[in-house]
UniProtKB/TrEMBL annotation:
The keyword Transferase applies. The keyword Protease does not apply. Pfam families: Acetyltransf_10. Residues 1-133 form the N-acetyltransferase domain. InterPro entries: Acyl_CoA_acyltransferase (IPR016181), GNAT_dom (IPR000182), GNPNAT1-like (IPR039143). The lineage of its organism: Archaea, Methanobacteriati, Methanobacteriota, Stenosarchaea group, Methanomicrobia. Keywords: Transferase. This is GNAT family acetyltransferase YjcF.
Length: 134
């Protein structure tokens, strides 16, 4: 899994250490075939996200930025790169699972909520979808 170790170091700091999500649910089967995007500063991983395809659908997820680098626009850069990757793969409709506090961020990229909220790792989430303009 190219890039996974670097991606996981950021995910561990954000999701496991900060948000107390159990490690056994933070790492999942999608990690084995997802494309992991990692942003670096001075050779240190500082932000990550992943893109994968499953059941003929395109997903973006595990988007996080180290606390020391938040508010710098890295999340937006990461999303733009992941959306580009999804588009290049031929997928127009893109799904993601959002923590409730982050919905506005994803809405700024055209994602809309659907379905009921659900608990994932002790944190309330909602599914979101960015539909193709075609």
């Amino acid at each position: 899994m190219e890039g996974f170790d670097e991606a996981f170091s950021v995910r561990k700091a954000v999701f496991i250490d900060e948000q107390a999500i159990p490690e056994e649910i933070e790492i999942d089967e999608m990690d084995g075939y997802a494309t992991h995007l990692v942003l670096f500063s001075e050779n240190e991983p500082i932000a990550t996200g992943r893109f994968y395809e499953k059941d003929a659908k395109s997903y973006i997820g595990r988007i996080c930025v180290l606390n020391t680098h938040r508010g710098t626009g890295l999340g937006r850069i990461l999303m733009e790169l992941l959306l580009q990757k999804a588009s290049e793969s031929g997928y127009n409709d893109i799904y993601l699972s959002s923590q409730m506090y982050a919905r506005g961020f994803y809405q700024s990229f055209g994602f809309e909520e659907f379905g009921e909220t659900f608990d994932d790792g002790g944190i309330e989430h909602v599914w979101m979808l960015k539909k193709s303009k075609n």
